[in-house]
Amino acid sequence: MLDKGENKVMVLGVIGAGNMAQAIIAGIKKSHSLDCKNIIVSNYNKQKAARLSEEYGVLTDDNINVIKKSDIVLLAVKPYALISTLELYQNELLDKIVISVAAGISIRDMEKVNTRLKIIRVMPNTPVQICQGVFAYVYGANIIKEDKEIFSSIFSKLGMFIEIDESKIDAVSSLTGCSPAYIYQIIEAMSDAGVKMGLPRELAISLSAMAVHGSGGMVHFTGTHPAVLKDKVTSPAGSTIEGLAELESKGVRGAVISALYKAYEKTLLFSKK
């Protein structure tokens, strides 16, 4: 359990109870980086906050009390609501570590609300729920070494924990934040193929999911370029190259690139509003 000295345990406040907030709380519980009784959640929909309390053992309260009782405040609100939330609670947030998950809202824009705010901008994806996600982050100007240590001790176990340049965060958001949905669709399509070939649906889904999981692991843990790994399972005149040729003829590679870039363009729109 995290302790910030003098036997005072850190408290994490979470404003918002949507999918990302839930994924992060689940990951923290799984990683044991912070006891869930030291997490306080607020949400305009009280039932959603209550469900998180029931499922994970977190506490609930209203926004102002969550902020006052917390050392770190995770703002898991929609991009359109972030700046107004900062403006409303800026005085209460001044001595807190403030973490934003909002896409498209820069640290500069957040610090315009109050230049003394201690802000960390993060871009996690939903697999942080099982501690196998991506947790990219950018530190604001007022974040000091102690803040970084506190932040890391809570969130570094949720997956790939990586500091990036803020100019790259929108690209990271699109590549890692949106892609789980695309991967799920691919797994679903693979399982459809399995069913067409006579496999039971549940087995087809399990096999497809494990094939994707293992293939990603091969790239990640071996450091081998995916094209090299692809060639290793592609025999001359074999069944794999037959399938690859079909994927190319259907423009799958181009469709994937286009889908990710469309998501990137949409993310950029948030910062222009």
Automatic annotation (TrEMBL):
Protein localization: Cytoplasm
Top-level taxonomic group: Bacteria
KW Lipid biosynthesis (keyword) present: no
Protein name stated in the entry: Pyrroline-5-carboxylate reductase
All residue ranges annotated as the Pyrroline-5-carboxylate reductase dimerisation domain in the record: 166-266
InterPro entries: 6-PGluconate_DH-like_C_sf, NAD(P)-bd_dom_sf, P5C_Rdtase_cat_N, P5CR-like_CS, P5CR_dimer, Pyrroline-COOH_reductase
GO biological process, one term: L-proline biosynthetic process
Catalytic reactions on record: L-proline + NAD(+) = (S)-1-pyrroline-5-carboxylate + NADH + 2 H(+); L-proline + NADP(+) = (S)-1-pyrroline-5-carboxylate + NADPH + 2 H(+)
Pathway given in the UniProt record: Amino-acid biosynthesis; L-proline biosynthesis; L-proline from L-glutamate 5-semialdehyde: step 1/1
Pfam annotation, one family: F420_oxidored
This protein's UniProt keywords: Amino-acid biosynthesis, Cytoplasm, NADP, Oxidoreductase, Proline biosynthesis
Domain Pyrroline-5-carboxylate reductase catalytic N-terminal residues, every copy: 12-104
Function description: Catalyzes the reduction of 1-pyrroline-5-carboxylate (PCA) to L-proline.
SUPFAM superfamilies per UniProt: 6-phosphogluconate dehydrogenase C-terminal domain-like, NAD(P)-binding Rossmann-fold domains
HAMAP family with a match to the protein in the record: P5C_reductase
Parts of the chain that traverse the membrane: none
Residues engaged in binding NADP(+): I15, G16, A17, G18, N19, M20, A76, V77, K78, P79
Principal localisation: cytoplasm
Keyword Lyase: no
Family: Belongs to the pyrroline-5-carboxylate reductase family.
Molecular-function annotations in GO: pyrroline-5-carboxylate reductase activity
PANTHER family assigned to the protein according to its UniProt record, in alphabetical order: PYRROLINE-5-CARBOXYLATE REDUCTASE (PTHR11645), PYRROLINE-5-CARBOXYLATE REDUCTASE 3 (PTHR11645:SF0)
Enzyme Commission number, as recorded: 1.5.1.2
GO CC terms: cytoplasm
Residue sites binding NADPH per the record: N63
